[in-house]
Amino acid sequence: MTAAHPAATTIMNMLTNASKQPVTADELLRFHAALAERGLEGQLGITYQQISAEAVVAAMKVTDSVIQPFGLLHGGAIAALVESVASVAGIVASGSAVAGLNNHTEFIRPATSGVVTATATVQHCGATTQSIAVHIVDEQQRLIATGHVRTMVLAPQVQ
């Protein structure tokens, strides 16, 4: 196993504190910078708008890099958005790193342009597993997809 990337420490510290108070605009900028260094979120252009104990909200612009050959937002990009916001919500809720056990994403309607926004809310936070619901809407607030992610709470890493 490789050592954690330095950005991981920045991200974990920020997210574990978010259970006490929402992440500020300056912290969001540092979070995005850390993700841009390493991570799928940076590659897909996922930007977090709110990180708090109540909800995690992130947006993704529909660009050429996230569409499939027929011009629709790729299902894999949507599933990655679901997993990303759910994982952040899980970390905030548990105060520990989490790993996805299951990602069930349902596609409701296609998106071909604009921005989609995902909102994750923790439905259950146990000592070892969590259940997180995700809703993705387009700019007209039409439902694009729903997701349910089950995560496993990992033991805190020794620094």
TrEMBL record:
Q: Which residues form a coiled coil?
A: none
Q: Can you tell me which family this protein belongs to? A: Belongs to the thioesterase PaaI family.
A GO cellular component annotation in the UniProt record: cytosol
Q: Which Gene3D superfamilies match?
A: Hotdog Thioesterase (3.10.129.10)
Keywords, sorted A to Z: Hydrolase
- Which Enzyme Commission numbers does its entry carry? 3.1.2.-
What is the species of this protein?
Corynebacterium choanae
Which SUPFAM superfamilies does the record match to this protein? Thioesterase/thiol ester dehydrase-isomerase
Carries keyword Transferase? Answer: no
Q: Which PANTHER family match?
A: 1,4-DIHYDROXY-2-NAPHTHOYL-COA THIOESTERASE 1 (PTHR43240:SF5)
Under the GO molecular function aspect, what terms does this record hold?
Answer: 1,4-dihydroxy-2-naphthoyl-CoA thioesterase activity
Q: Tell me which Pfam families the record gives.
A: 4HBT (PF03061)
Question: Thioesterase domain location, by residue?
Answer: 70-144
Protein name in the entry:
Esterase
Query: What is the enzyme's class at the highest EC level?
Result: hydrolase
